[in-house]
Amino acid sequence: MTETALNWRKSTHSGPDNDACIEVADNCARVHVRDTKDRTAGELTATPAAWSAFTVFAAASRLL
């Protein structure tokens, strides 16, 4: 089985002054999210469906 390397990118919803930045890797079976400033702290991993539901909720709640 071949694993896909994670392709991290800065979220478009990150703060403009790099004060609240997250990176997202969504080029594989799961969506991975981590803190740009502390990449060693671990990451959140979710299914694409769960991540989509979260982002819809966050946008509706004005969390983004």
Notes on the structure:
Helices cover 20% and strands 22% of the residues. It is an alpha+beta fold and 64 residues long. It has one helix spanning 48-60, and strands at 9-10, 22-25, 31-35, 44-46. The protein has a 4-stranded antiparallel beta sheet with strand order 1-2-3-4. It has a domain at 9-52. The termini are far apart.
What percentage of the residues does DSSP assign to strands (E)?
15-25%
Instruction: Determine the oligomeric state from the structure.
Output: single chain
Q: How far do the termini sit from each other?
A: 36 Å
**Element-level helix/strand string:** EEEEH
Mean pLDDT: 83
Main structural class: alpha+beta
| Helicity, as a percent range | 10-25%
> Which overall shape is indicated by the principal axes computed on the Cα atoms?
globular
Helices, by number, come to: 1
Computed over alpha carbons, the radius of gyration is: 12 Å
The residue ranges in which pLDDT falls below 50 over 5 or more consecutive positions are none
- Kindly state the number of beta strands: 4
Biggest sheet layout? 4 strands, antiparallel
Strand order of the largest sheet: 1-2-3-4
